[in-house]
Amino acid sequence: MLSDRRPILLTNARILDPSRDLDIVGDLLMADGTIREVKRGISAAGVPEGAEVIDCRDRIVAPGLVDMRAFIGEPGAEYRETLASASHAAAAGGVTTIVCQPDTTPPIDDPAMVDFVQRRARDTAIVRVQPMAALTTGLKGEEMTEIGLLKAAGAVAFTDGARSITNARVMRRALTYARDFDALIAHHTEDPHLVGEGVMNESEFAARLGLMGVPTAAETIMLERDLRLVALAKARYHAASLTCAGSLDVLKRGKDTGLAITAAASINHLTLNELDVGSYRTFCKVSPPLRGEDDRRALVEALASGLIDVVMSDHDPQDVETKRLPFAEAEPGAIGIETMLSAALRLVHSGDVTLMALLKAMSTRPAEILGLPGGTLRAGSLADVIVIDLDVPWIVDRELLKSKCKNSPFDEARLQGRVTRTIVAGRTVYEYV
Amino acid sequence: MNIAPKPSFVLHQRHLLGIQGLSRDEIVGLLDLAEEFVEINRQVEKKRASLRGRTQINLFFEVSTRTQSSFELAGKRLGADVMNMSVGSSSIRKGETLMDTAITLNAMHPDILVVRHQSSGAVALLARKVDCCVVNAGDGSHEHPTQALLDALTIRRNKGRVERLVVAICGDIAHSRVARSNIILLNALDARVRVVAPSTLLPPGVERLGVEVCRDMREGLRDADIVMMLRLQRERMNGSFVPSEQEYFAYFGLDEKKLGYAKPDALVMHPGPMNRGVEINSTVADGARSLIREQVEMGVAVRMAVLEALSRKLPNA
Fold first, then answer.
1. Cβ–Cβ gap A328/B180 under 8 Å
2. Pairing state of beta strands A8-17 and A22-31?
3. Catalytic residue chosen out of the listed positions A27, A191, A314, A316
4. Distance between CA atoms of residues A250 and A230, nearest Å
5. Residues 6 or more apart from B7 whose CB is under 8 A from it?
6. Percent of chain B, pLDDT > 70?
7. pLDDT tens digits for B225-248?
8. Is B104 assigned a catalytic role?
9. Whole-prediction pTM
10. A202 in contact with B, Cβ within 8 Å
11. What DSSP assignment string belongs to B137-185?
12. Listed residue (B251, B299, B254, B250) closest to B276, CA to CA
């Protein structure tokens, strides 16, 4: 990624670096694509020659966000989203690294495809893009992909995206093999047979709407199975999207026994619940489905305690052809990369999660888990930095969102706080005016 | 005796999408209006003029005989021009989406659209895109409001009231829009509602819908005033939700013996079409305590009442 030659000096900011629990008021200097210094009084000691000085009084400066799960239509569904359009949405949301999923057409299941995505991103995207590769060929859940070669080509983890691997033997072998390459396996934990015809959370509300439900057990059973296989294989494993209290219990038990496991929750499941489906709002149809309020509360607590490692957007663009349909017939998925941080700030403003914990789950932790640079403001690290105004009120207007698709469950939501500047490799790629 | 003229009854909303959202007064108002049409329908001259000049389109994405013909007759007796569109003959088969169909029909300026669709919520979705009033003739497993109204009218005419009656709804509750609409309506009129079914045919959370839940016909029919049977789709009987037709009939099919658990004057209902020998046997279905044919008669009257009430809210009414 090209870096701007001109150094940038952010001054008078409240600097939050979750990689070392740093919370100070001071200045941050970056040049040549890396962070040079973070401390009080850089500007007082003299502004480096030619530096662009940006006053960040009353603003937060933090590492750029690393979004660990985003579905992008390139290749195969460019009409829904391209790496370029997703990157503009990401930049406006403070995301400096998108981790894209392999559910494309064709899927990212061979090294040439990893290479293709990297090249397209380099040529067209304004933020970093890191692909996950398919865990099984064609995402069919049958034969494992070339984990070694894919990893060497740059795949940051292995997953079948929004699909679960139902065959336990396939999963066990993949985990066992992946361990030799220290490859991370990320898994969507949802038993498709238990999901069946289900389209929303199984509950009284689904019964009233006449919609078939998906029980939380569909997720918990798959997670429980996986963790037993992880114990056999001793592999690194990441639960891609957990949504309910039952799964959190299983996760806690697994972590307590020392398994190398981590887990993420989507912004949707942390801030919305099944009642948001309201009168069949298809923008609130996601997979796994939005759960009840008790499960949402449990998820928020798990984020606050660190049991949930990562918050991700689960960005999944769907257009009117797939969303303007009766609820059961509509595709699941919601865009979210641009609104993720602002929506999550609700949890900070309500006092449920500290800003430090939130930023850690959105930057430091995903970077650590994926072995990526970034997620830190230490001197010498990537100059991927965001500036946040915690207080500015705004109303989401889906027409103004930068994603090609407008399926935002936060449309018309009143949010407080947003990213005002996004810097990637020392260059400003987004500015809120 | 000083009889005040009856105030003209109107609904508060433009569409009838479900029983949910109707007030008790609106339900009773519709039933009272339907009573008048029952009498009219028994006369030689059945024709009325309240929908003269109006266009009613029956848009059925799911095949139906009785509901569609009932709506057709209701519209015609009120003087409307009625057009039927059903799946087999329309462009739905050619891949046109629900919304495009809605927009196309809307351009023809109908006054009333009667819609049935296999997906819950589809009728409400369509109603947002059209300018006319929309009547839900059944959407997925969600609601079938005119069925619940005609059931209530049938009950009221035979029992003189609905409140405090014990109504046992038996069969495939999980997939039934008839059950949902009836549960809401009967609760609104203070009946005691029970649902009786094997657990696989009960939607999770059903106990919070204002019903008693029974998994056994003896217990479920005890002291029942009304036994309402539901149709069980054939594809749900072959080991998916219940093991077989035979086993289902043995435990949940209505015969004279099981009807004996109910009150001696209990009456039997079924929204049709019946699977004789699966959820109900012929002796009971055709017996003296069966209201099944009367339900069909009430169906026309209730649909006339609904169309009439909605038409009073149409522009230039």
1. no
2. antiparallel
3. A314
4. 13
5. none
6. 95
7. 999 999 998 777 777 899 999 999
8. no
9. 0.94
10. yes
11. EEETTTB-HHHHHHHHHHHHHHHS--TT-EEEEES--TT-HHHHHHHHH
12. B254
